[in-house]
Amino acid sequence: MSERTADLGVLGMGTMGASLALNFADNGGFTVALGNRTVEKAYGVRDENPELAARLVPTDSIEHFVSTLKSPRVVVLMVNAGKPVDDQMALVLPHLELGDILIDAGNADFNDTVRREAQVKPTGIHFVGMGVSGGEVGARHGPSIMVGGDKAVWERLKPLLEPISAKFDNTPCVDWLGPDGAGHFVKTIHNGIEYADMQMIAEIYGILRDAVGLQPQEMADIFADWNRRDLQSYLIEISALVLAERDPDTGGALVDLIVDEAGQKGTGRWSVIEAQKLGIGATTLEAAVSARGVSSRRQERAEAARIFGNVTTARAEFHADHDGLAELEHALVTAKIIAYAQGYATLAEASREFSWNLPLGEIARIWRAGCIIRSRFLDDITRAYEAGDVVNLLHAPSFTARIEAGQESLRRTVAKAALAGIPVPALSAALAYFDDYRRARGTTNLTQGQRDLFGAHTFRRLDREGVFHHRWPQA
Ligand code: NAP
């Protein structure tokens, strides 16, 4: 029987789990039990961090792991989403008791989180779905943490999570966001927005590389400059770093040697599936997820380039002078506002649908530090929600003004890219969404007519109340 010395335990010693455990020990001053399917990794985490070894308790079985935990126990699961979570839960739950807390801190489909919470509830053990953003460095030194589940449990977790979270102006970037799957849902939409943000940056990079013909270092300088104004963000900052990096072997730009294939799985895909289920057109997020899908078909793209001509041979009316770069910068700011508005519209609709009462301004607040989409811009979102009810971020005065100022730049950028054959799927999806959203008289009156003709789906009229079916001539 081990001594019960650990304040909490982390199960899963992969990239994120090990970093989070070290963070709990280092910044929280907690004693942390370490558990992992491959037992050696738990001992490795302790042995590789001698300065924290006194607060790290590696264990070699679930029984051993649980036996080191002070009661009521707190177990943080940090394994791959899906079956590994269910498998680990099945192993650990029989050793937990009434009042213990089991946290799934990995990325999870929020539908699974809702199911798991309902499954665990009758046992009196608390299940918490918690989103953690910031990658390896964030998990180690201060992530943004999105907590779901029972609010009373959050009060118990707060002293554990606040010390390890990122801080923005000394305020911890962690909060309880709503019951059951709310934490994981918000993390999912965070990642959908992250996909969109990254894709739009890559599209602007594509214009600068293929249409203007700039070298990576020149583009790094441009992104570094943009990082001083409205676009200031972690993603713009690291874009500059990646573009400036040299390959130690060849001396050339490392970015030019990286294969242009990006995977899409988990959260990105879930974000657009959930937006669709909620009837929200998160088209920029969708375009970003789809673009990764297209990117992964590299051989097919090479063949299509042979058949249709390669877009990299196109030259368009883009210029790297002051006005040309300002236009791209404003296009990116404008499209970014639209993408975030789509993500936030998805959060708002989920909040209504699941009666979560999501604190939308607070969500932007806890994203301001620690997470991948951290940026100056999130402050404006927080302020917009603090100022009053926001139907859609595009209606918030600070964003309305910026959209008005930037929409021509986005329009010209998308138009010039389209004429040159340079793909800008996320930027153009943002523009199309904006134009659709701000058109008072749309075109689905024709769609409704067609549906009534072939399926007697009925329609409503502008000039009369009621629901109508018309006897249309048949084709
Ligand atoms: P990772 O480095 O691949 O580690 C995966 C961990 O899960 C390992 O401890 C592994 O154990 C364990 N595991 C996998 N399958 C298992 C199974 N069937 N049964 C028991 N344990 C199993 O992954 P990671 O990057 O730390 O990610 C962990 C979670 O955090 C995921 O949900 C991920 O989506 C999420 N996340 C990752 C990041 C990131 O930047 N990496 C950021 C935010 C969230 P073994 O050592 O025995 O293989």
What does this structure look like?
The structure is a single chain. This protein is an alpha/beta fold and 475 residues long. Helix content is 53%, strand content 9%. The chain has 3 domains: 8-180, NAD(P)-binding Rossmann-like Domain (Rossmann fold, 3-Layer(aba) Sandwich); 188-437, N-(1-d-carboxylethyl)-l-norvaline Dehydrogenase, domain 2, CATH 1.10.1040; 443-475, Up-down Bundle (Single alpha-helices involved in coiled-coils or other helix-helix interfaces). The strands form 2 sheets. An 8-stranded mixed sheet has the order 3-2-1-4-5-6-7-10, with helices on both faces. A two-stranded antiparallel ribbon has the order 8-9. Helix 14 packs across helix 18 (425-437). The termini are far apart. The mean pLDDT is 95. The site of NADP nicotinamide-adenine-dinucleotide phosphate has 24 residues, from helix 1, helix 4, strand 6 and helix 6.
